[in-house]
Amino acid sequence: MRCHHSLEARPVWFSELWHPARGGAQSSLEFVQPGTLGEMGPEPKPPFVREPSLAGLRTSVSLRFPWTRAGFERYRPQRLMSGTPVGGRGVRMRKVVTDHLLSLDGYFGGPNGEIDWFGFDEESMEWSRKIMGAAGSIVMGRRTFELMAKFWPTQSALDQEPFIAEHMTKLPKIVFSRTVDSSTWKNTKFVTRPVAETIREEKEGTGGSILILGSSIILAPLWREHLVDEVNVRIQPIVVGKGRPLFAESEVRQPLSLKESRVFQSGVTALRYEVLPAPA
Q1: Strand pairing category for 107-109 and 244-245
Q2: What CATH number is given to the structural domain containing 106?
Q3: In this structure, how many other beta carbons lie within 10 angstroms of the beta carbon of residue 171?
Q4: From CA 233, how far away is CA 225, in angstroms rounded?
Q5: Are residues 62 and 104 in the same domain?
Q6: Residue 109 — very low, low, confident or very high, per pLDDT cuts 50/70/90?
Q7: 232 — phi, psi (to 5°)?
């Protein structure tokens, strides 16, 4: 079987060409390329064999295994994600994910950082567990770190919320601070380099998502540089009047796409947004 897809229109997933009626037969897929091979994403791995034609504009990919969905899911190339440099081999980059609790009027803390109005019932904690379970590292500013360090490394935290407490301790923690440079909390690294530069390098690594907790000062440069991929907020049923806004004033207009929403029995509304490509 030969299929022709224009790579100018969209990336190609091998699984889109899966055909259950062709079980067991060896087949060949051929793609028409407008440019270099790098535009196809990662280099195929065995059992794929790349065979350029004499015209130089087509590439045949022979499949050395039966046509099964499992085979395609295992060997299909990764789609380029937002923010991935174009050219060369496309590599899936780590996602930057934020998780915040907000008042209805947009504050994540009172004037002095008060959070006594946060609600942590079982539904809210389950939302946190899902986000934490997908994380590969945690990023905080000094204030948020000092607040977290008072509770999560303790036996009380392990007794009350073992899943999050264990992850908070075992995951690498990157803390941006110019005044604090050490802690007894395991797996903590203090950084003084620019936020956007540091997180851009982290995105190019491997592992789970990069989870941003609290820290509007940390979020601002990431938002400005379009480095955030997913936004999670839990709107608390309260208006606090004044405090620390999550999003500082900015000229950045960023479209979002709602991917999930839930209303808890407590009245909290949980929202998960995908960050769309920045407008030109």
Answers
A1: antiparallel
A2: 3.40.430.10
A3: 17
A4: 20
A5: no
A6: confident
A7: -115, 130
pLDDT, one tens digit per residue, over 97-107 is 999 999 998 88
Are 134 and 224 in a shared domain?
A: yes
Residue 202 has pLDDT above 60, yes or no: yes
Nearest to 177 by CA among 136, 210, 149: 149
pLDDT over 90 at 14, yes or no: no
Q: Are residues 150 and 189 in the same domain?
A: yes
| Residue 121, token pair as written in the block | 């019932």
Which residues, at least 6 apart from 259, have a Cβ–Cβ distance to it below 8 Å? Answer: 272, 273, 274
24: containing domain: 14-75
What pLDDT does 265 receive? 94
Please state which of the ranges 79-88, 136-145, 167-176 shows the lowest mean pLDDT: 79-88
Taking the complete model, does pTM exceed 0.90, yes or no? Answer: no
**Is the residue at 87 inside a domain?**
no
Residue 187 has φ and ψ, to the nearest 5°, of: 60, 40
